[in-house]
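=== Structure Prediction Worksheet ===
Name of assembly: unnamed complex
Input type: mixed (protein and possibly other molecules)
Chain count: two
Listed entries:
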Amino acid sequence: MSSMETSNLTISMLRQMFESGKRFDKRGLLDLREISLDGEVSNKAEGSARVRLGKTEVIAGVKLMLGEPYPDSLDKGNLVVSGDLLPLASPRFEMGPPNFYAIEIPRLVDRAIRESKMIDLSKLVVKEGEKVWTVYIDIYPINDDGNLIDASTIAAVAALKSSFVPVLDKDGRIDYSSKSDKKLPVSKETYPFSVTFFKLGNALILDPTREESEACEVRVTFGISVWNKQYMINSCQKSGQVPFTQAEIEKMMEILPKKYDELNEKLKKYF
Amino acid sequence: MADKFKRVTGRALDELRPMVAKIGVVPNADGSALFAFGKTVAIAAVYGPRQLHPQHMQDPATGILRVNYDLLSFSVSDRKKPGPSRRSQEISKMTEWALSPVLDLKDFPSTVIDVQIYILQADAGTRTAGINAASLALAHAGIPMRNLVCSVAIGKQDHTLVVDLDKDEEDFEEGEGATDFPVAKIANTSHFTLLQLDGKLQPERVKEVIALANKACEKIYEVQKKALKGVSS
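=== Predicted Assembly ===
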């Protein structure tokens, strides 16, 4: 059953309902589902977190490895975000090379985090020009019931906020047996959330279930943070064929800061 | 707003780099074009509609658009390893979605239209130049189109909005730094088919960005039209 594609009948039903502001689960079009956050998915990770957004569940873990800096940023550590859509999490995901969506999610999370400057990469240098920390964030959905991108960003940010920099022994190698008390250099005030708007017909909706997102024609993801007491869009990407109108873009700009505040209100107790 | 900001290039805030548009640069292709924003040069070739392989990708209801974008290895300072990267795959997909709303491929069931875009020389704005070139190449190929697609990057330097960033401007680091906001729209409409952004931009300033993009796209459209009118087929 769960493997069957969302039918045209369901899609036309959803189109009608969205038109009159209704959803199967009785939410308003812009309402988010319940969110909860747990720490420490793995004690081997430098930091990790589990996010539940309705029935969607995503975990993220941070590992720090020593490596060389990139030639264009010798005085900075590196950030690498990756992940996989495990076949464990959905009848839609298959083994094999990643499809576009699997590539897109970590790239969107990467840009939201990188551009917000939440991580101070200049503090992750062991020896300038030679040895720096690379921060690896790996994101895995455990159960896909829609809106994986926004859930992934929350998981990644929470994992970063809980991360420590490993201890180095006298030879400069990582000593996993010593417990670190050095937090990863992340900003207290500035951290991003992503807010993805989905469109079906003329309706804009937030936080869709899998069925709703499969019915939608296009989406656009914004990474947003607060920097210097101002809301800042750090990243944006439209995915899908159908265009957004100028009026829709302007409407989204009004909603965006409110949703940032709402997410922050719900999640700050965990950070 | 009395903005004293001076661009490194001396361009006015809303000034695009000099544009070049040429049709028919790949004689083998069904349609082709070159589009340049200053030192950024993109070429695009269209093949099709043609039978789509593998067969399971065919759609009996319509033809499909398939875009491949990439940088040539010597188009950037540090040689780019040939072959697709995550970045190029993403831009290919974004370009496909930027262009497909103007195409009507219902009359070409089970076929594909392949658009190949390559960057010869990169000085920022490669995806936008690529979209402009591809839009021209599709028109040149005689594919049924509702309109042309025009694309430009609006940028921000500290807190000043500027049009069509070059690489030096993209690397700007003072104040709020550099923001790059590439968009594409269906010419003479308010429909945006590409929206991407990296950097820092206040949500309330998106209106200004759209106004600048609208104006810049009008100019791009004129250049595209002129190039197409010069073609006798």
